[in-house]
Write a structure and sequence with these properties.
- With about 525 residues, the protein is α+β, with helices and mostly antiparallel strands.
- The chain has 18 helices and 15 strands.
- Helix 5 (about 125-130) runs antiparallel to helix 17 and helix 10 packs parallel to helix 17.
- The longest helix is centred in the last third of the chain and has 29 residues, at about 490-520.
């Protein structure tokens, strides 16, 4: 969205209004890159200085990126954030598809940014937390107006040994849903699926009945990537537990040892064998998820329901270039019913955490200032800056919400900056104009909460898993992929499960049951 110089200045000024009352805001240094040593910032004089006189300090932040471009450090959004917090921010970006590898390499190097996003409670994160790499934040949260309102259940889910080593990034519990090309449904004469059989029939029709009406056999049903979420969503439909369930003796058992999981795998193989899903799913990058929808190759995606809004924008843009009519192309739905009724794979209430390095943030005084920075990110005006950018440049206000610019060059100035936001206790950013699609997203996510299948082990931290979890997960996931593509049969799956048990799985099952019992379940 084009803007003149005066409106840009007004937009930046509005984004900085709340900064007037800030006191004592400071970042922390990252080694020799800081303009002022972090140790000097803890003197009484530095503590009493106002944000307008205190020198800004560097604060390095590592976080994932989901687009092909990331904001440059001269982005007006980053500059506005720096002025509001009296910091000099340096963002280290890594593609979402390889972020886990980048995270582990950074941990191993010992040269950590002050703030890092960890995308889940991984073994490497747990080991590092236990070894003292991160600040334990639990005792400090009560002192901050936003962080003190953290959800205790979500804190428990994200904890390690009952301690808080990272601030969770809030997400809707019933976040996941099904995106479908609504125009394709209409073209093949079907309604939105209500059961697993309906879902299969939709995929079959999308592959066989020329849903894009181009006269060519060039479509398939659903796009799958290396991202595990779609498989996990579908296996929940079949009655499989969320990661761990109870066996006939009341003992915790891993999902891939259940009969319901096996039923789901047979269904997955059927989808692959009949070419109802893309044959390269095992190597397809999740950053390319929307491309088959926008290029009239596939008609269904399973994933985070709120993703349908940017996906719709991308598809609508592609259809416009093909001279297709202006309309809503994607629709969003909840889960389909399986043998045990409607079941939804929930989130844990958070998507990763933001933690603070002890090797970089060396003193309690510095820690408190970093926490003040993170707390301020949950103020309404700062959240709005991170999510929406600057008024008059990245969005305009209307009576019904905000309308974002469609200028890609401007959108890059703010893209993915919200990945550092915890949204504790909630997202207060100005909402987009509530289109029918966005309204439905919110309804689907709310309705899903009635059908969520919780993971009974979310609060538990296993020593065995921290040591061998990556290896065990690789064994199970590799076996699933090989079964789907026909490289192994059910006997091969059984052999993979035996390997899983011998590789530490037996010890994991024993320990998880002990932890579960000790946790008072």
């Amino acid at each position: 969205m084009a803007t003149n110089k005066k409106s840009l200045q007004r937009g930046i000024a509005l984004a900085l209004v709340s900064a007037v009352g800030l006191t004592g805001m400071i970042g922390c240094s990252n080694g020799g890159n800081s303009k002022e040593p972090a140790g000097n910032s803890t003197s009484p004089a530095a503590n009493s200085a106002s944000p307008t006189t205190q020198p800004p300090l560097n604060l390095d932040i590592m976080l994932p990126s989901f687009g092909t471009e990331s904001p440059k450090e001269d982005s007006p959004v980053i500059q506005a954030l720096e002025k509001a917090t009296n910091t000099k921010l340096h963002f280290e970006w890594a593609p979402n598809s390889s972020y886990g590898d980048k995270y582990n390499i950074t941990l191993a190097s010992g040269k950590m940014p002050a703030i890092m996003v960890v995308q889940s409670k991984t073994a490497s994160f747990v080991n590092a937390a236990r070894s003292g790499a991160f600040w334990e934040l639990g005792p400090y949260l009560k002192d901050y107006p936003n962080l003190s309102k953290a959800n205790p259940i979500t804190l428990d889910n994200s904890s390690v040994d009952g301690k808080i080593y990272g601030l969770y990034r809030t997400r809707p519990l019933g976040r996941n849903g099904m995106m479908i090309r609504q125009d394709w449904l209409e073209n093949v004469g079907l309604q939105s699926p209500k059961t697993i059989d309906d879902f299969y029939n939709v995929l079959k029709a999308f592959a066989a009945q020329d849903p894009d009406k181009n006269g060519k056999a060039d479509t398939y049903g659903m796009v799958i990537t290396k991202y595990n979420l779609p498989w996990e969503m579908m296996q929940t439909w079949f009655g499989a537990p969320n990661k761990w369930g109870m066996d006939a003796n009341g003992k915790l058992t891993p999902v891939h040892f259940t009969s319901e999981y096996m039923d789901a795998l047979r269904f997955f193989k059927k989808l692959y064998d009949e070419k109802l899903i893309n044959q390269d799913f095992a190597v397809m990058d999740s950053a390319k998820w929307v491309e088959p929808l926008a290029s009239n190759q596939a008609g269904v995606v399973l994933g985070e329901a709120d993703g349908v809004v940017p996906f719709e924008n991308r598809v609508a843009e592609a259809m416009k270039k093909l001279n297709k009519p202006e309309r809503q192309y994607l629709d969003i739905f909840g889960d389909v019913a399986g043998p045990k009724g409607v079941r939804n794979l929930p989130t844990t209430g958070y998507a990763g955490m933001v933690h603070i390095s002890k090797s970089t943030v060396k003193t309690e005084a510095e820690l408190k200032r970093v926490l003040t920075f993170l707390d301020k990110l949950s103020d309404a005006d700062i959240q709005n800056l991170l999510y929406n950018g600057i008024e008059g440049r990245h969005y305009t206000k209307t009576a019904n919400g905000i309308e974002a610019t469609t200028d890609k060059a401007l959108l890059v100035e703010k893209v993915d900056l919200s990945q550092v936001a915890t949204n504790i206790p909630e997202n207060k950013a100005l909402p987009a104009v509530e289109t029918p699609l966005l309204t439905k997203v919110l309804k689907v996510q709310k309705d899903n909460e009635a059908f969520v299948v919780p993971d009974p082990t979310s609060p538990l931290v296993s020593t065995v898993y921290t040591q061998k979890g990556a290896q065990l997960d690789n064994i199970a996931n590799d076996a699933r992929t090989k079964f789907i593509v026909g490289q192994i049969d059910e006997a091969g799956l059984k052999a993979a499960n035996e390997l899983w048990l011998k590789s530490g799985g037996e010890d994991l099952i024993k320990e998880m049951n002990e932890l579960y019992a000790a946790n008072g379940k």
